[in-house]
Amino acid sequence: MMRTGSEPTTARSPLRMRLWLSLWGMVWAVAGLVAFVITGRAGWATACAVLLVIAVTDLCFVVRRMRQGPHFQPGRDVPPYPPDRRGRKRYGP
């Protein structure tokens, strides 16, 4: 990601929010899956199963990223830099 210099100094990744939203989605997907299986609605049960798989996958990615720990973020003393244009043709006027 390119640094523009306008990023907030206290910006944080929303991983904890994604963690809780994934857990919330899992709870509702399991509840919907169980309810639709009991009532015999196969299409809706399949939709809830797909949502459950998506929520579990997102949860796995979030937990993995959280366990990696913090990454280097440049401080105020690092100025913004122009994009790397080496080897690229410039299009336009």
Task: Walk me through what this model shows.
It holds the Pfam family DUF6343. Keywords: Membrane, Transmembrane, Transmembrane helix. This is DUF6343 family protein. With 93 residues, the protein is mainly alpha-helical. The chain has a domain at 15-68. The protein has helices at 15-39, 42-68. Helix 1 (15-39) runs antiparallel to helix 2 (42-68). The chain is elongated, with a radius of gyration of 21 Å. The mean pLDDT is 81.
How does the SSE layout of this entry go?
Blueprint: H1 15-39, H2 42-68
Helix pairs in contact: 1-2
Summarize, please.
By secondary structure, the chain is mostly helical. It is 56% helix and 0% strand.
Shape: elongated
Rg (C-alpha, Å): 21 Å
Q: Which ranges are low-confidence, i.e. pLDDT below 50, for 5 or more consecutive residues? A: none
Strand content: under 5%
**Structure classification:** mainly alpha
**SSE pattern:** HH
Q: Summarize the main sheet.
A: none
Transmembrane segments: 20-38, 44-63
Pfam families: DUF6343
Region (Disordered): 69-93
Keywords: Membrane, Transmembrane, Transmembrane helix
